[in-house]
Design brief:
heterodimer, A: two-stranded antiparallel sheet, 2 strands, 71% helix, 3% strand, B: 230 residues, alpha/beta, 4-stranded antiparallel sheet, 9 helices, 25% strand
Chain lengths: 303, 230
């Protein structure tokens, strides 16, 4: 007599939906990480400089938003009208006064300088804002969502994803088709020769860092609405940004975007397995991907 | 007139130029002759600001302009074609030219004119700059300086490593620039060519001028002696 084989248990529809929801959530979280990483990718690509204070500047952006919101009584998105220009100016001045001194002097000097900057920013934030955690209140908007075939999508994550995609598309277009982008690529290739064709590299670097901090301002609002932050939250942001950049391949803008998505999805899938394991899964995927493809997913390999 | 006046130049502690005085008049072509390491490239680089110079070490129409950054010299009409071509690999040929033209001065040399006069360049304008042959790259490098519409064009080893046909092409483009009234400073390993393409010449040895004269009446034995330093 033939024994009846057990039929595989049908995957429950709700399981499937939960899975899709996790993936969608991960992609949207990843788009935010990608936005964190974009600035890092740009300063690495154009100036060959790693900014260790990148994460702390994200936190600084969130605190600035919080201050502007309190002072003017506006919501987080409206506060961007003030915070984006403020961050641009901070970036421009920072590069002009401080960072330009170390650009082009090997990898170590910028690392040391921005490591110091990171400590200074953290301590100043702690001094001014105390060590208490804060978050940005977006009111109703942060809680709203809609249903898409049984999968619920939050309006806020969706909005931040769209903003991230728009900024990546804009940056990518600028790099590929504008005078600014041609300058960026020329300086990245060969700063000495770029100067010969009239590029003012010092000023250009300051503009790039200004742009980077303006992007950070946008990212930090999304971040601050989503997650409570404290003055010491920076290094973790830096780590996620860095993973997105390296995973995608250095100097590749869309690579950073994909890298961010992968980290985001890995983190949420990990959190699904066990709620505390999210970041660990992100790091794990990063390590495995790096072992398999040290130059990053879209990297060209060593030149 | 572009002139260096007792110009010194250093790389760190190493002194490369010793009180070098040299001049080029508008519309004139001057050749710099000398062995490797004589200081020819250093001279060109200190004129455009890549190597530090005293303000009164470089004079343009009598005004001290030494030590100013490259973009300022470009605005004043001094452009350098660097040794080894140095095109930007991440940019296409056209983008290389666009970048320079936007930063340079307005004038008769435009991308459109170059493409018309050198149809070969139009054919490869959308290729990455480093996907070309050496001769094609040199044409682009020369064009990149020309679209800045300089009055003084400094050319560092523009025929190095090229086939004879390619060398002729590069000099044909340079010839058109000269007939437009550009002054040219030519650093060239091929002494014969350097003399036949120039109005005057300077022989440089160990950072000093050891011989100068009109190219037409150059005594080849004297030049050879100045070149080799025997």
């Amino acid at each position: 007599m033939r024994t009846m084989r057990k039929l595989p248990k049908p995957i429950l529809e709700s399981d499937m939906q939960a899975f899709i929801e996790t993936i969608a959530g991960g992609l949207m979280l990843g788009a935010l990480y990608a936005l964190f990483g974009l600035g890092l990718s740009l300063s690495l690509g154009v100036m060959k400089m790693i900014n260790i204070a990148h994460g702390d500047l994200i936190v600084l952006g969130a605190y600035l938003c919080s201050t502007v919101m309190q002072a003017l009584g506006v919501g987080p998105f409206l506060s961007l009208l003030a915070v984006v220009p403020m961050m641009f100016v901070i970036g421009y001045v920072l590069q002009r006064v401080l960072l330009n001194r170390v650009v082009g002097r090997g990898a170590l000097s910028p690392l040391l300088l921005t490591f110091g900057l990171s400590i200074v920013v953290q301590n100043v934030l702690q001094e001014v804002y105390t060590a208490d955690t804060r978050s940005l209140q977006a009111g109703e908007f942060a809680l709203q969502g809609f249903d898409l075939g049984g999968v619920s999508i939050g309006l806020l994550p969706l909005a931040s994803t769209l903003i991230s995609v728009a900024i990546f598309a804009g940056t990518s277009w600028l790099i590929g088709h504008s005078h600014l982008g041609r300058q960026a690529r020329a300086v990245a290739d060969d700063p000495g020769t770029a100067r010969l064709v009239g590029v003012n590299d010092r000023n250009f670097f300051a503009l790039v860092t200004g742009f980077v901090l303006a992007v950070i301002a946008l990212a930090s609002v999304m971040y601050g609405i989503r997650t409570p932050f404290s003055p010491t939250a920076g290094p973790e942001r830096l780590l996620y940004s860095f993973e997105a950049v390296v995973l995608g391949g250095l100097g590749n803008v869309w690579g950073t975007f994909v890298g961010g998505l992968i980290i985001g999805v890995a983190q949420l899938l990990g959190a699904k397995v066990s709620s505390g394991l999210g970041p660990f899964f992100g790091h794990l995927v990063f390590l495995i991907a790096l072992l398999a493809r040290p130059q990053g997913i879209f990297g060209k390999g060593s030149r | 007139m572009l002139r260096t006046e007792r110009l010194d130049a250093y790389y760190g502690l190493f002194q490369a130029l010793f009180g070098l005085t040299f001049e080029v008049k508008p519309g004139e072509t001057v050749a710099l002759i000398g062995s490797n390491g004589a200081g020819k490239s250093t001279l060109l680089r200190s004129i455009v600001g890549s190597v530090r110079a005293r303000p009164d070490g470089v004079l343009l129409d009598g005004r001290p302009v030494g030590g100013d950054p490259e973009r300022k010299q470009l605005d004043r009409g001094i452009a350098l074609v660097p040794e080894g071509r140095r095109l930007f690999p991440s940019l296409t040929v056209r983008e290389n030219l666009q970048l320079a033209m936007r930063n340079g001065r307005k004038g008769p040399w435009t991308i459109e004119r170059l493409m018309k006069e050198f149809p070969v360049m139009e054919a490869f304008q959308h290729r990455p700059a480093t996907a070309l042959s050496g001769g094609q790259q040199q044409l682009v490098a020369l064009s990149r300086a020309l679209v800045c519409n300089p009055s003084y064009l400094l050319c560092d080893e523009i025929s190095l490593g090229l086939s004879p046909v390619a060398v002729n092409e590069v000099y044909e483009l340079l010839g058109r620039a000269r007939s437009d009234g550009l002054a040219v400073v030519l650093v060239e390993q091929n002494v014969k060519r350097a003399l036949s393409e120039s109005d005057r010449f300077y022989c440089i040895q160990k950072g000093r001028v050891v011989l100068e004269g009109t190219s037409e009446h150059a005594d080849h034995a004297q030049v050879a002696q100045a070149y080799f330093g025997i």
